[in-house]
Design brief:
heterodimer, A: about 575 residues, alpha+beta, ten-stranded mixed beta sheet, six-stranded antiparallel barrel, 16 helices, B: about 475 residues, alpha/beta, about 35% helix, binds adenosine-5'-triphosphate, binds magnesium ion
Chain lengths: ~575, ~475
C-alpha cells in the first residue's frame, strides 16, 4: 500500500451495538468510515489513544473484530441541489424510495444510494455571465425544481471571490459542470456541506414577521416569528405530531422540512399519502411541491436518528441561503437526545442528569441557534424557523430535555394531557404557554390584519385568566353561588375555549384558519360578550342569556366556507332574541 | 462455517458469561453453551472484541461453570417457520412443547426483523369491529394498528384480549386470519385460561402460541415477542393472512430487559430501566402494520400491567410513545363491577379517524364521538364538584351531565363477556344516552345528524311513517 493510505484502512477491535471501536486508522472527529465487507456507514465520535470510536448508522449484527474499516477522511455531509424538494430521506439523506428499489419493503444493510438523483436532467438558466465576479453564496442561475420552487444555484459558501470564465444554460444533471471559475473551479448544480457545521451568513436580522400557521391558538395567542424557535412539549397522545403536521401543512413558509426523528412509521406514511393531495392555500398547488421529508423512525438505527436533525437543518439553511423562508419541524427532539444518550452510554462517557451526556444542553442550544432570519451571503433575506416537539418521560416538564429546550426557544406551546383526554384540541394549555415574540409581532398584526388585533388578543387572554381564577372558587362553592356577571364571564370564556381555541385538525374547512378569519371570529365573540352584558344590565335573566337561540349556530359558523355570513346570522338571531329588534 | 469451541469462560454474572481468547466472533451471533451435565443452553453475543466476548444466555446461567463449552455458530438467532405452525404451542424460544412433531421449516427467518421502509407502508384504515362499545365507538381499532391495553394487576385484561380475539372481524369479509399469542412471564393459571378458551372456541387451529411462563427463564422473554412477530410476518407476508398478535405481559418483558442491563452494569435510565428501552420496544411494536402491495397485515394487541397503576411509569409511558393509542383499564370502574372497565378518557386510538365515518362505520360517528367524549368528560368533572359542594349546588343542566356519565358507564361501557355488539347498536345506544341532555348542548353535532339519529326525531319519523301508512 502507498504511504498516503497509512491510517486510512484499519480494523475492528470491538463491537457493542451501534458502537464500533477501530484501530489502525487515524481519522479526525466526525470523519465518515465504512465498516466491514458490506461497508456499513459510520461516523467517528471519539478518539481514545490508538483507538477510534465509530457510531454506525446501520445494524452491526455479524461485524467482528478484525473486519476492515476504511476512513473516507470526509465529514458526514449532505448533497444540496435540485431534487431535494419532494424527497423522502432517511436520517443520513438516503432516499427511501431508492432504498426500496434496491432492497424491497424492508431496509437491509450496506445500501448506498446518493441523496440526489444522478440521472435526472434539469433546465439551468444562468443569471450571471462570463466575466462576472462571484463569491460564495452568490446565485449563478436557477432551475425550476417544482411548480412552486425556483431553485437558485449557489456558489458554494467556501468559494472566494472569483471571475466566471465559462457558464452555460441548458439541460444538466447535478454532476455536470455548468460554470467554471478563473482558478479552474468547476461549479455544478449541487455541492456538499457537512451537516454538523452551520452554513454561514452575513448577519442575523430581528424577527419582525410572524410565521402564519393557520392555527388560532398559535397565531393569535402565542405566535412564532419567521426565523424564530418554538418548542411543543407534551406527554404521549397530547397532540405534538398533529400540531407539527398542521404546521407543515399550513405555515406560510416557502419551504418546509419535516423530520420524523425516532417516531412512528405510519405517521410519515400519512404525510406521504396526504401531502400530494392537499392544496396549499397560497400557491394553489399540492403541498408536497414545497416539502422535504426526513424519516428515521424509532426502529431504524439510532445513530442515523442522531444525525437526522442535522441533515434536516442543513437542508433548511441551504434554502434559506436562496432567500427563502423555511420552516423545519423536528418530531421529536427527545428521541434525538436519547440517541445521543445511548451513544454516550456506549462510549462510557461520564453521564450527566438522567444519564444524558453533559453536552446535552450545548447540543440543543447549537441546534436551535441555527434558526434565524438572516442576511444571506448572496445579499438577500431568508429565514429558518425551527419548531421542535419534546416528549418528556411521564409528561413531566422538569426533565432535562424540556428544560434545556425551554432555556433556548422563544415560544412554548405546552400540551396538556387533561385537555387531550377531554378532546379539547389542540390541547395547548393557554395559561402555561407563552410567546416572547408577542410584542415584536404586534405591529405586524395591527398593520396587516386589523388595527385592534392586539387589543382583542389582550381582552381574550384576560377573560381566560379571569376564568381560571373563578374556576377555583367554583370548585369550592359551585357556580350557582357566583354573582351573575361572573357567571356570564364564565360563559364567554367557554365560547373562547370551545369556539375559538378548539380547532379540529381533520375538519376540511376548519383545519386552516386565515388571520382574517381568526380576527373575525374573536371579534364576533367580543360582540356576543358585549350583547350578553348589555342584556344583563337591562335586567334579562342569566339563564335566558346563556341559552339564547343562535348560540349553537354561532359555535358552528367556523365550519362553513362562508363563515362570515354564518357568524353574522347567528349574532343577529341572538340580538333579536335578547333585544327584540 | 468455522464452529470453534472454547472452554475459556472467565466470568459469569447474572445472565451473562464472559468468554476470552476467541477467534473473531460476530456481534449478535448465536451461541450454544454445553454444560458438564450434558445439557445445552442458547445465547447471543452482546459485545465482542479482540479480548473478550460477552454472551447473554437465554435460559439463564444456572449450572454454567468455567468448564462449560461455548460454541459460536456463526449464525444469528432464527425461527424455523412453516404454515404448520398454526395450531401449535411453542416455548418462549420457539421449540414445540405440545408433544407434537418437529416443525419442518419452509424458511428459517432471522428474528430481528429489519425495519419496514416507511415508504413501503400503507396507512391502516380498515375498521375492525371488536363488538365492544367502548372500543368500537370511542376508540376504534383498525387493521394494522398497534393498540395496547394498559392494565393493572388483577384487572380483567385477559378476558378483554380473549373477547377481542373471539369477536374481531372486518365486516363483509370472510378473509383468513390468524392469532399469534405470546405469553411472557404470565402464570400457569393465566396461560391455562387462555389455552382453554382457544381450545373451546376452536381458535387454536388458527393460532400459534408461544409460552414463556413465570417459572421459565426470564431472559428468554427477550426472544419471545420477536419469535412471535417473526411468525406473524411469515404468515402475513408469505401466506397473506391477517394476523392479530397478542403480547402479554410486556411488563415482564421490560423487567427482563432491566435485569440484562443491570448485569451489564450499564448506566441506568429512569427507574433503573435501560436508556435504550424506547428503541428496544419500538423494534417490537413497529413490526405492526400494512405494506403496500401485500395482502397480509399485522395488528398488535400488547398487554401490559402498569406497576402501581401508574401510567407515567416508564413501561406504559414508553409504550404509549410508540403505539398508536392505548386502551386504559380503571380499577375504579372494576370496583364498580363494570366489565370491561375501560376508562375512555385516557384511552385513545390514533388511527380511528381514517377508519370511521361514512362507508366505514356510519356518517355520524366522528361528531358523535366528539360529543360523547365532551359530555362524559363534563360529567366526570362534575363528580369532583359534587364531592365537595353536594349535588344540590348543581344546576339542572349540570345534573343531567352527571346522570349522563353514570349511564355511560353502566349501559354503554358495561357489557357481557360474550356480548358482541355491532357498530350500529353501539352508536344508537350512544344516541339514546345523548338524548338525556338538552338538545342545545349537542354543539358538536351537525343538525342533519341530530335529525337523522336523535331518538326524538327518529320516533317522530317512525310515527310519521306509520301514520302515513295507515292513511294509505
Ligand atoms: N388539533 C387536533 N385536532 C384533532 N385531533 C387532534 C388534534 N391534536 C391531537 N389530536 C388527537 O390526538 C391524538 C394524538 O395526537 P398526536 O399523535 O399528535 O400525539 P403526540 O403528542 O404526537 O403523541 P406521541 O408523543 O405519542 O407521538 C391524535 O391521533 C388525534 O386523535
Ligand atoms: Mg407524536
Amino acid at each position: 500500500m502507498e504511504v498516503k493510505a497509512v491510517g486510512k484502512v484499519g480494523e475492528v477491535y470491538r463491537v457493542s451495538g451501534p458502537l464500533v471501536v477501530g484501530e489502525g486508522i487515524r481519522p479526525r472527529m466526525y470523519d465518515v468510515c465504512f465498516v466491514g465487507e458490506e461497508g456499513l456507514m459510520g461516523e467517528v465520535v471519539g478518539l481514545v489513544g490508538e483507538k477510534t470510536l465509530i457510531q454506525v448508522y446501520e445494524d452491526t449484527s455479524g461485524i467482528k473484530p478484525g473486519d476492515r474499516i476504511e476512513n473516507t477522511g470526509m465529514p458526514l455531509s449532505v448533497e444540496l441541489g435540485p431534487g431535494l424538494i419532494k424527497s423522502f430521506y432517511d436520517g443520513i439523506q438516503r432516499p427511501l424510495p431508492g432504498l426500496k428499489e434496491v432492497s424491497g419493503d424492508f431496509i437491509s444493510r450496506g445500501l448506498h444510494v446518493p441523496g440526489l438523483d444522478r440521472k435526472k436532467n434539469w433546465e439551468f438558466n444562468p443569471a450571471v455571465k462570463k466575466g462576472d465576479k462571484v463569491k460564495g453564496g452568490d446565485i449563478i442561475g436557477t432551475v425550476q425544481e417544482t411548480e412552486v420552487v425556483e431553485h437558485k444555484i449557489l456558489v458554494p459558501p467556501y468559494v472566494g471571490e472569483s471571475t466566471i470564465t465559462e457558464i452555460n444554460g441548458g439541460k444538466f444533471t447535478v454532476e455536470d459542470t455548468v460554470a467554471v471559475l478563473d482558478d479552474g473551479t468547476e461549479l455544478k448544480l449541487y455541492h456538499k456541506w457537512p451537516v454538523r457545521q452551520a452554513r454561514p451568513y452575513i448577519e442575523k436580522l430581528p424577527p419582525l414577521i410572524p410565521l402564519i400557521t393557520g392555527q388560532r391558538i398559535l397565531d393569535t395567542l402565542f405566535p412564532v416569528a419567521k426565523g424564530g424557535t418554538a418548542a411543543i412539549p407534551g406527554p404521549f397522545g397530547s397532540g405534538k405530531t398533529v400540531t407539527q403536521h398542521q404546521l407543515a401543512k399550513w405555515s406560510d413558509a416557502h419551504i418546509v422540512v419535516y423530520i420524523g426523528c425516532g417516531e412512528r412509521g405510519n405517521e410519515m406514511t400519512e404525510v406521504l399519502e396526504e401531502f400530494p393531495e392537499l392544496i396549499d392555500p397560497r400557491t394553489n398547488k399540492p403541498l408536497m411541491e414545497r416539502t422535504v421529508l426526513i424519516a428515521n423512525t424509532s426502529n431504524m438505527p439510532v445513530a442515523a436518528r442522531e444525525a437526522s436533525v442535522y441533515t434536516g437543518i442543513t437542508i433548511a439553511e441551504y434554502f434559506r441561503d436562496m432567500g427563502y423562508d423555511v420552516s423545519i419541524m423536528a418530531d421529536s427532539t427527545s428521541r434525538w437526545a436519547e440517541a445521543m444518550r445511548e451513544i454516550s452510554g456506549r462510549l462510557e462517557e461520564m453521564p450527566g442528569e438522567e444519564g444524558y451526556p453533559a453536552y446535552l444542553a450545548s447540543r440543543i442550544a447549537e441546534f436551535y441557534e441555527r434558526a434565524g432570519r438572516v442576511k444571506t451571503l448572496g445579499g438577500s433575506v431568508g429565514s429558518v424557523s425551527v419548531i421542535g416537539a419534546v416528549s418528556p418521560p411521564g409528561g413531566d416538564f422538569s426533565e432535562p430535555v424540556t428544560q434545556n429546550t425551554l432555556r433556548i426557544v422563544k415560544v412554548f406551546w405546552a400540551l396538556d394531557a387533561k385537555l387531550a383526554a377531554r378532546r379539547h384540541f389542540p390541547a395547548i394549555n393557554w395559561l402555561q404557554s407563552y410567546s416572547l415574540y408577542t410584542d415584536t409581532l404586534k405591529e405586524w398584526y395591527d398593520e396587516n390584519v386589523a388595527a385592534d388585533w392586539s387589543e382583542l388578543r389582550k381582552w381574550a387572554m384576560e377573560v381566560l385568566q379571569e376564568e381560571a381564577n373563578l374556576q377555583e372558587i367554583v370548585q369550592l362553592v359551585g357556580s350557582d353561588a357566583l354573582p351573575e356577571s361572573q357567571r356570564l364571564l364564565l360563559e364567554v370564556a367557554r365560547l373562547i375555549r370551545e369556539v375559538f381555541l378548539q380547532q379540529y385538525a381533520y375538519h376540511p374547512v376548519d383545519s386552516y384558519c386565515s388571520p382574517q378569519k381568526q380576527y373575525d371570529m374573536l371579534k364576533g365573540i367580543k360582540e356576543v360578550n358585549d350583547m350578553f352584558f348589555k342584556a344583563l344590565e337591562q335586567g334579562k335573566l342569566i339563564d335566558e342569556i346563556i341559552n339564547v337561540p343562535g348560540k349553537e349556530e354561532f359555535a358552528r359558523a367556523k365550519f362553513e366556507e362562508d363563515y362570515k355570513t354564518a357568524l353574522q346570522n347567528a349574532i343577529e338571531t341572538m340580538r333579536k332574541a335578547l333585544f327584540g329588534e | 462455517m468455522g464452529m470453534k469451541e472454547y472452554k475459556t469462560i472467565n466470568k459469569v454474572a447474572g445472565p451473562l458469561i464472559f468468554v476470552e481468547k476467541t477467534e473473531p466472533v460476530g456481534f449478535g451471533e448465536l451461541v450454544t453453551v454445553s454444560l458438564p451435565d450434558g445439557s445445552t443452553k442458547r445465547g447471543q453475543v452482546l459485545d465482542t472484541s479482540k479480548d473478550v466476548v460477552v454472551v447473554q444466555v437465554f435460559e439463564g446461567t444456572r449450572g454454567i461453570d468455567t468448564s462449560s463449552t461455548v460454541r459460536f455458530t456463526g449464525d444469528i438467532v432464527r425461527l424455523p417457520c412453516s404454515k404448520d405452525m398454526l395450531g401449535r404451542v411453542l416455548s418462549g424460544s420457539g421449540n414445540p412443547i405440545d408433544g407434537g412433531p418437529k416443525i419442518v421449516p419452509e424458511e428459517r427467518r432471522e428474528i430481528i426483523g429489519a425495519a419496514i421502509n416507511p415508504y413501503a407502508r400503507q396507512y391502516p384504515r380498515e375498521f375492525i369491529q371488536t363488538g365492544i362499545s367502548a372500543i368500537d365507538g370511542m376508540n376504534t381499532l383498525v387493521r394494522g394498528q398497534k393498540l395496547p391495553i394498559f392494565s393493572g394487576s388483577g384487572l380483567p385484561h385477559n378476558d378483554i384480549a380473549l373477547q377481542i380475539a373471539r369477536q374481531a372481524k372486518v365486516r363483509g369479509e370472510g378473509e383468513e386470519f390468524a392469532v399469534i399469542f405470546a405469553a411472557m412471564g404470565i402464570t400457569n393459571e393465566e396461560a391455562y385460561h387462555f389455552m382453554k378458551d382457544f381450545e373451546r372456541t376452536g381458535a387454536l387451529e388458527r393460532a400459534v402460541v408461544f409460552l414463556n411462563l413465570a417459572d421459565d427463564p426470564a431472559i428468554e422473554r427477550i426472544l419471545t415477542p420477536r419469535m412471535a412477530l417473526t411468525a406473524a410476518e411469515f404468515l402475513a407476508y408469505e401466506y397473506d393472512l391477517h394476523v392479530l398478535v397478542i403480547l402479554t405481559d410486556m411488563t415482564n418483558y421490560c423487567e427482563a430487559l432491566r435485569e440484562m442491563s443491570a448485569a451489564r452494569e450499564e448506566v441506568p435510565g429512569r427507574r433503573g430501566y435501560p436508556g435504550y428501552m424506547y428503541t428496544d420496544l419500538s423494534t417490537i411494536y413497529e413490526r405492526a402494520g400494512r405494506i403496500r402491495g401485500r395482502k397480509g397485515t399485522i395488528t398488535q394487541f400488547p398487554i401490559l400491567t402498569m406497576p402501581g397503576d401508574d401510567i407515567t411509569h416508564p413501561i406504559p409511558d414508553l409504550s404509549g410513545y410508540i403505539t398508536e393509542g392505548q386502551i386504559v383499564l380503571s380499577r375504579e370502574l372494576h370496583a364498580k363491577g363494570i366489565y370491561p372497565p375501560i376508562d375512555v378518557l385516557p384511552s385513545l386510538s390514533r388511527l380511528m379517524k381514517e377508519g370511521i365515518g361514512e362507508g366505514m362505520t356510519r356518517d355520524d360517528h366522528v361528531q358523535w364521538n366528539d360529543q360523547m367524549y365532551a359530555a362524559y368528560a363534563e360529567g366526570v368533572d362534575l363528580r369532583g364538584l359534587v364531592a365537595i359542594v353536594g349535588e344540590e349546588a348543581l344546576s339542572d343542566r349540570d345534573r343531567k351531565f352527571l346522570r349522563f356519565a353514570d349511564e355511560f358507564e353502566r349501559r354503554f361501557v358495561q357489557q357481557g363477556k360474550y356480548e358482541d355488539r355491532d357498530i350500529e347498536y353501539t352508536l344508537d345506544l350512544g344516541w339514546e344516552l345523548l338524548s338525556m341532555l338538552p338538545e342545545a348542548e349537542l354543539m358538536k353535532i351537525e343538525r342533519k345528524f341530530i335529525e337523522k339519529y336523535h331518538p326524538a326525531y327518529r320516533k317522530k319519523t317512525a310515527a310519521g311513517e306509520e301514520a302515513a301508512e295507515a292513511a294509505a
